[in-house]
Each structure stands twice: as structure tokens, then as C-alpha cells.
């Protein structure tokens, strides 16, 4: 997902013009390019050989016995899984109406430039971080810690910046924390690039994901009054 400015040449304000901000990854499949992320993690942890498994069951329903939670990717340094690391991929969700209408417009449009979106959408950092990612880390990271291994998380630059960005003293010692953060970006050529990695404890990671300020009561009640409607 990207933010675009309307194209104003010849007053065609209903057309997409130049990009107004950096690309934001909203589909986890975008992280798959050339296996950049798992190869990066393999180099960090010192794997000479790399074996990979996807969607490995991690939790089981007590009622049905079926898998109720999975680790996105597991990297092993050998085929016996004597040393391995978990890897979670986290894109950002968007807030707004579905995109079916936009695809219908694209299908029938014949313009030289693509049309502007039919409705306003935005990346929902809060839902993607505190509501989605943090509960997964709080469940998986302690278990992997007990098992003597660690969890890595791949996000893009806008996501990482939304939760506070690079630490003041980032650590590259995987023994100093529970979670290896891998931060990538989509370049101007729309290629996935490695940008930054650091190791944080689960507690430090949770603090980043929860970072938010409560609004003042006066501000809250002012907004509340504008939204109140008779039942």
C-alpha cells in the first residue's frame, strides 16, 4: 500500500499521480521475495546450511486436537532440527472498506493513469501491532525461550517506525534477548531490501508494541459528544 497524490495535469484529479510516501507492505507474501528474510536470519544465527519448514503447528485445540496456532516459518541448521529458530512475518492491516469495488473499477478502466481509490484507507498500525502481533509474541516467545531457542519477527520500515523505530542502543547479540527483529523496506525499484536488525527481550518488544498515550479527558469527552446519538 502507498499514499499517492492526485495527478493534476490537465485537471485529471481523479487519477493517481506521483507517490506521496514510502511503500507499506500490507500482504505477508511480499516478504517472500528471493527468500531474502530467511537467508538473512540464517546468516545472523550462523547457519551454514539452511532447512526451512512453513506453517509448523505450535498450539493444539484441547477439544478437537487440531492445530490452533502455527509458526509461520521455522529455520533449521540441519535436517534433524537439533538447532532451529522460529520466524514470524507481520504485514500491516488496513483500516477502511474492502477493495472489491476498486478492482471492479480497474477492470473496466481504460485511462493511461490508474484511478484514485474509491474510498479512504490507511495502515492500521495499532491493530497490527498491539492487537495482532503482541499476543502471538507473548504466547510463542516464552515457550521458545524454555526450549532454548528464539523467535524472529520480520516487519517493514514503516511498521517498525510506528512502534518506536531503532532502539537507542541496538544489540546484535542474540544471547541478549528473546526476539530478533528483522526490518526490511521496499526500494524505489520495488525490490525488498534489508535495512536493520536488532535483538530485544520479550518485555522490551511488548513495550514497543504497546507504546501509546491516553488522550486527555477533555479531548475524549469532546469527541464523545460529537459522536453521541439518541438510541
The whole-angstrom Rg is: 21 Å
| Strand order of the biggest β-sheet | 3-4-5-8-9-10
CATH architecture: 3-Layer(aba) Sandwich
Task: List unreliable stretches of 5+ residues.
Answer: 6-12
**Coarse structural class:** alpha+beta
- Counted beta strands: 10
SSE sequence, one letter per element: EEHEEEEHEHEHEEHH
| Share of residues in strands | 25-35%
Question: What does this protein look like?
Answer:
The protein is of the alpha+beta class. The chain has a single domain (23-98, 125-227), classed as Trna Endonuclease, Chain: A, domain 1. The protein is 29% helix and 26% strand. It has helices at 36-45, 100-108, 125-146, 157-162, 202-210, 217-227; strands at 4-6, 16-19, 51-60, 67-76, 84-89, 94-95, 122-123, 151-156, 179-186, 192-200. A 6-stranded mixed sheet has the order 3-4-5-8-9-10. The protein has a two-stranded antiparallel sheet with strand order 1-2. The radius of gyration is 21 Å and the shape is globular. The chain starts with a strand and ends with a helix.
Provide a compact summary of the structure:
By secondary structure, the chain is an alpha+beta fold. The chain has six helices and ten strands. It has helices at residues 36-45, 100-108, 125-146, 157-162, 202-210, 217-227, and strands at 4-6, 16-19, 51-60, 67-76, 84-89, 94-95, 122-123, 151-156, 179-186, 192-200.
Helix/strand layout:
Elements: E1 4-6, E2 16-19, H1 36-45, E3 51-60, E4 67-76, E5 84-89, E6 94-95, H2 100-108, E7 122-123, H3 125-146, E8 151-156, H4 157-162, E9 179-186, E10 192-200, H5 202-210, H6 217-227
Parallel strand pairs: 5-8, 8-9
Antiparallel strand pairs: 1-2, 3-4, 4-5, 6-7, 9-10
Helix pairs in contact: 3-5
Amino acid at each position: 500500500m502507498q499514499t499517492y497524490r492526485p495527478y493534476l495535469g490537465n485537471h485529471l484529479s481523479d487519477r493517481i499521480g506521483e507517490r506521496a510516501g514510502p511503500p507499506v507492505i500490507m500482504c505477508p507474501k511480499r516478504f517472500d521475495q528471493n527468500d531474502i528474510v530467511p537467508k538473512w536470519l540464517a546468516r545472523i544465527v550462523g547457519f551454514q546450511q539452511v532447512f526451512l519448514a512453513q506453517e509448523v503447528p505450535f498450539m493444539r485445540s484441547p477439544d478437537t486436537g487440531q492445530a490452533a496456532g502455527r509458526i509461520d516459518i521455522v529455520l533449521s541448521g540441519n535436517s534433524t532440527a537439533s538447532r532451529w529458530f522460529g520466524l514470524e512475518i507481520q504485514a500491516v492491516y488496513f483500516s477502511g472498506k474492502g477493495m472489491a469495488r476498486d478492482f471492479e473499477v480497474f477492470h473496466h478502466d481504460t485511462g493511461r493513469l490508474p484511478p484514485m481509490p474509491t474510498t479512504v484507507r490507511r495502515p492500521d498500525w495499532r491493530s497490527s501491532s498491539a492487537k495482532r502481533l503482541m499476543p502471538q509474541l507473548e504466547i510463542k516467545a516464552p515457550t521458545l525461550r524454555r526450549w532454548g531457542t528464539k523467535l524472529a519477527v520480520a516487519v517493514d520500515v514503516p511498521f517498525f517506525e510506528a512502534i518506536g523505530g531503532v532502539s537507542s542502543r541496538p544489540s546484535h547479540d542474540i544471547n541478549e534477548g528473546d526476539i530478533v527483529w528483522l526490518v526490511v523496506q521496499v526500494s524505489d525499484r520495488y525490490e525488498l531490501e534489508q535495512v536493520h536488525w536488532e535483538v530485544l527481550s520479550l518485555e522490551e518488544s511488548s513495550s514497543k508494541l504497546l507504546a501509546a498515550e491516553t488522550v486527555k479527558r477533555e479531548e475524549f469527552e469532546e469527541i464523545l459528544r460529537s459522536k453521541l446519538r439518541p438510541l
